[in-house]
Amino acid sequence: MSPCLKIALIPAYNPENCLIQVVHQLREKGFWILVVDDGSTREHKEIFKEIDDVGRVLILTHTKNKGKGCALKTGLTYIQKYISENYTVVTVDADGQHRPKDVEMVCKMSQKHPGCLVLGRRKIQKETPLKNRLGNQITRMVYMFTTGIRIYDTQTGLRAFDHTLLAELLTIPGERYEYEMNVLLACSRNKIPMREIGIETIYINDNSSSHFHPFKDSCRIYKEILKFSASSLISFFLDYGIYSLLLWFTSGFSKSISLFLSNAVARILSGCFNYQVNRNLVFQEKAGSGRTAVQYVLLVAGILAGNTLLLEVFVHLGMNPYIGKLCTELIFFLISWFVQRTFIFKQQRSGC
């Protein structure tokens, strides 16, 4: 087997002088360094000129700022086009918050586990800035809720992978910080194993050099959970509309029969709609639909039974049947999501 080329891919936007030290230290570790200048302003160009003279460094330049995701894909596209030998890529932040020994460690882990995405896991400490601490905790919970996979540090920029994953990574959407979350979502969806390894936690000047925008970038990151919520909301309105209409049409029947028929028909019709939307747009299941369809039918049957029973109890206790329907739907929303993500459209668990 030919020696493996070690590539450090560094997206940089208006970097500080510490980038020069990062480049020198990584070169001493034997890395070939690819820096992507993501449209930095003129006053930062001297930094790129200085690292350009280091040797074993290539700088690619965006004429305007396009975002971290675009910068990473610019570097990956170059690697795919011009480097044919066996290689391992490590993405490194430009702000000096990744120790060279940690960069080398995740690189070696990737070489030991081909086809695996290796993540440098930072430990949340008291010194961690509040926005980073909260952001990582919230994103970790959302990712767990969305995929069923436990990743401690979903926002780490220190990641390593071999050449076998590069083509897949280039197809993943995202231009800015959401790209890194989309990578984790795509890995879970496409059964690409992931492995975390502990690295040193460093925040320089309270992470003031970060270009992460908490509101805008968080909205991009949480897009998938919002898609599921939207599909469920539409399905709910469809379900509730059919239920209300049938409840009115069957008002001449006994209350129990009217409730059962209205709820059952509404659940079946809205369930068919919800399955197609979640399979094709939210979870993007690529395998044949036979297995998931059978499992979804079982889920719908189970939810229908529980839903009907709970609705009957609410109405029996004196609750208005329309209000009772709203309460049961809210309860079974979370149950439906958990079962679909964990069992029906389940993804590969992390680990190599």
Describe this structure in words.
It is a single chain. The protein is α/β, with parallel strands linked by helices. The protein folds into two domains: about 5-220, Spore Coat Polysaccharide Biosynthesis Protein SpsA, Chain A; about 225-345, no CATH class. The protein contains twelve helices and seven strands. The chain has helices spanning about 20-30, 45-50, 70-80, 100-110, 130-145, 165-170, 180-190, 215-220, 225-250, 255-280, 290-315, 320-345; strands spanning about 5-10, 30-40, 55-60, 85-90, 115-120, 160, 195-200. A seven-stranded mixed β-sheet has the order 3-2-1-4-6-5-7, sandwiched between helices. Helix 11 packs antiparallel against helix 12. The two termini are about 20 Å apart.
